[in-house]
Amino acid sequence: MPPTLGNRSNKPGYWTKPLKKRLVAITISLFIGIVIMAAKFYTYHLTLSSAVLSDALESIINVVASLFAMGSILLSAKPPDEEHPYGHGKIEFFSAGFEGALIVLAAIGIFKSGIDSFIEPRALPNLGIGLLVLMCAAALNLFLAIGLIRTGKQTGSIVLDADGKHILSDVYTSLGVLLGLVLVYWTNWLWLDGLVACLVGLNILFIGFKLVRESYTGLMDTSDPEIVDQITNLILTHKKDFWIDIHKLRTWRSGNHIHVDFHLVLPANFSLERAHMEVRELETILITHFNRNASVLIHTDPCSKPECPICENYDCTLRDGVDTIDDKDDIPSNSTHI
Fold first, then answer.
1. Which fold has domain 225-330?
2. Cβ-proximal residues to 253 (8 Å cutoff; 6+ apart), any chain
3. What residues contact residue 276 under an 8 Å CB cut-off, 6+ apart?
4. How far is 155 from 23, CA to CA, in rounded Å?
5. Strand (E) positions, the chain?
6. How far apart are the C-alpha atoms of 218 and 222, rounded to whole Å?
7. Four-residue CA torsion sign, 107, 36, 40, 132
8. What is the DSSP string of 58-70?
């Protein structure tokens, strides 16, 4: 039986394989995040470095964000209900925005600490041990970030992808801190500690604003050009002669679920049953392409005389001219190709 508009509610249970995979990934992220956070604060205790403190503060954000992400993954996977007919996937955008806002707040704290250390430099004891701990933490974070981003793309989870990118930014932060502290170690220029902390704050401020912007575009149902291209190419690949025109293509995402709607012009002499069969076939093509994580709504329009020039249904008794149009850029258009 082909998938239908409400296909999500037909999935075999709440605990699907992708959901389990996401939860395992975020649980590992949470556990490793706590370990790394403890290690970085211990390093700060040893070295009294503002740059290390900036790195440790970002680790707090990682842990809090992972907790929030775990809750959003569980909620977003719930099937649609009467109160939420489009599901709960939007919570993932809230999670990504929340994480971005926390990063911005952390950046402000890091700037303050860095400026204080730059104006009044202080000695950094036990720097060698601190550098070793930071190197181990950065390596562990790198493997974690790669795993989260990969799992996020495999399972279509915006939360995991955002969490992975955040942790990857933490790796860049740690590398910057390491470089700065190595320079301090060899030159004894203590003011570099505060400068590195400020640079770290600037970097994660950029990351935070980027996550907030991505969350905003998702909540505002901004069209994704990549998804539009996938759909238009798919339609053109399977196009039939009597699919006269396709226009008003709209897409939006709710979590890992994609909603698609557009208008399909069919010959006016098609029966209602024939038109329904064509719609079901096109729905099946699209839903299958997105691994059943899609809802498709197709509005059918009967053809009219002005559309004959773009019709390829050569044996039609109603036709009044011949021409073809297959430009994929026209499919998202809000008007017919006449």
1. Alpha-Beta Plaits (3.30.70)
2. 89, 158, 218, 221, 224, 227, 259
3. none
4. 11
5. 245-254, 257-266, 294-302
6. 6
7. negative
8. HHHHHHHHHHHHH
Radius of gyration of the chain (CA): 27
Fold of 7-219: Alpha-lytic protease prodomain-like (1.20.1510)
| pLDDT of 67 strictly over 80 | yes
What does the alpha-carbon distance between residue 152 and residue 23 come to, in Å, rounded to a whole number? 11
Cα separation, 181 vs 19, whole angstroms:
41
What one-character-per-residue DSSP string does 90-139 give?
THHHHHHHHHHHHHHHHHHHHHHHHHHHHHS----TTHHHHHHHHHHHHH
Going 83 to 86 to 88 to 92, the CA torsion angle's sign is negative
Instruction: Give the neighbor-by-neighbor strand order of the sheet with 294-302.
Output: 245-254, 257-266, 294-302
Distance CA 196, CA 48 (A): 14
Residue found under tokens 């400068």: 195
From first CA to last CA, the distance across the chain in angstroms is 36
CATH 3.30.70.1350 residue ranges for the chain: 225-330
Residue 15 pLDDT class (50, 70, 90 cuts): low
Rounded to an integer, what distance in angstroms lies between the CA atom of residue 272 and that of residue 266? 11
Task: Return the exposure string of 66-87: e unless at least 16 CB atoms fall within 10 Å of the residue's CB, then b.
Answer: bebbbebbbbbbeebeeeeeeb
How far is the C-alpha of 247 from the C-alpha of 295, rounded, in Å? 17
CATH 1.20.1510.10 residue ranges of the chain are: 7-219
Of 4-8, 49-53, 210-214, 279-283, which one has max mean pLDDT?
279-283
User: Cα–Cα–Cα angle for 78, 216, 219, nearest 5°?
Assistant: 35
Neighbouring C-beta atoms of residue 215, cutoff 10 Å: 22
> 22: closest CA among 159, 140, 143, 144?
159
**Both tokens assigned to 79:** 């099937």
Question: At 12, is the pLDDT very low, low, confident or very high (cuts 50, 70, 90)?
Answer: very low
